[in-house]
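Researcher: Predict the fold of Alpha-N-arabinofuranosidase.
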Amino acid sequence: MPSTIRNPILPGFNPDPSIVRVGDDYYIGTSTFEWFPGVQIHHSRDLVHWQLLTRPLTRASQLNMLGDPDSCGIWAPCLSHADDQFWLIYTDVKRYGRTTVGGASGASLRDFHNFLVTAPAVDGPWSDPVYLNSSGFDPSLFHDDDGRKYLVNMLWDHRPGQNRFAGIVLQEYSAAERRLVGQRRLIFGGTALGFTEAPHLYKRNGFYYLLVAEGGTGWNHAVTMARSRSLTGPYELHPDIYILSSRLRPDAELQRAGHADFVETPAGDTYLVYLCGRPLRNRGRCTLGRETAIARMRWDSDGWLRTADGDGLPRLSVPAPALPPQPFPATATREDFNTAQLPLDFQWLRSPYPDELFSLTARPGHLRLYGRETIGSLFKQSLVARRQQTHCFSAETVLEFEPEHFQQAAGLVCYYNSTKFHYLHVSHDEHLGKHLRVMSALPDSPQADAFTPPVVVRARQPLHLRVEVDHERLLFAYRHADEPEWRWLPQQFDASILSDEATTPGLPNFTGAFVGVACQDLAGTAAPADFDYFEYREREYLPDVRA
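Model: Structure tokens for Alpha-N-arabinofuranosidase follow.
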């Protein structure tokens, strides 16, 4: 039986965890932002081993993110179970607006819409959504022990001079009427740390406990707790105020700790799941995005929740509960695209109409992408990718693609968002013919994009493409199908730009690095590109992978 849990439990881009136990099963829902399908749900039976199980928001009637800006879309899902069904609350963010918090002279306009879907089982079928409100984000549904239900969410105040994060509001939800009823009430204004968001309500021993995130989702992040004898308050702060944070410990391995939810085992052990980041040691950037970690907690005699060791710091390893181990089979490192469905580890961007973007049946055994809009488009972008989940990895694919002109391109991409990527792509030039080059979008450089010199490649032959990432170092290689040796591009690329921290000021950056394949046809003729397989292999650091 494992004695410890290794953090993070959900590596790679898996932020804003919401956890629920149903019998002996544990489920965590995490944000997916602009990646489709929406919401990741992971499953465990021992809190040690976790497996990606499903994504519930799969159709246009539930989620349509066409046009959603980068790092918008699905924020902070809340997963719960009551009345013999699962309840999932989520936000679809349509406009991010300014990042100002308090005292700003102008407006800070945002658009976010909150919805509810339900299902008899965690793997569905999930219902069409019920619209709830648009007053703020991070909605959470609380099921009181008298059967009544309440929605809590942070309140956004766009007015000049106001605190944008205006506190936590509560309003009753009528399951019979499928709508919010009564008046909303402000129940918690937050602390001086600000950025009060991510509310979750619980009831224990006659107290209502409120858990929120504060300090912003960067280095100042923290988990704040308050409680009240009354649902509507007033709420008194925890004696320590912040029950988990790494904001005062820059030496901690897990940074940005916050946005939490807790669960109890059948034996009464309490565990807190929270988001965190693992910065590159030599660059201080979190290319893996915001991940999910876990902490063992204790309820003290004063009725307050604290970490088991009492210091309120995130740890790389924590004591495991006394539960039988339930490991899952290892995820395959190579996908050969031999089924009609996209492998679960892969997602695409924004569109609820995947048939417009790709097919796994047009050429069996291949993933066919149809050339659509520019890479970074907010609408019809043919890009299929999976999360980067470790700092060192290898990925490769084989591409069959015959572009006819410079407006057609396809290849292998390391992608964060429309302003941050490295794209090894094949295209066509009227003088050179078929060629290969890298396009980089650079968020923190005076030059917004950069291209390597073109390299001529053979026409009408499959082309193998490869990327190697070691922390902040990124290298590309290629070879023709009959060549045993890889040809390395001489340039070394900066993988650290694929992070929240590398940005033009004011832009939202809340996802993480992905690696995958893409195809464009700016002439509108949907030229296809076929990918025979995709391999993603995690590994140890290599000083020079080309050796």
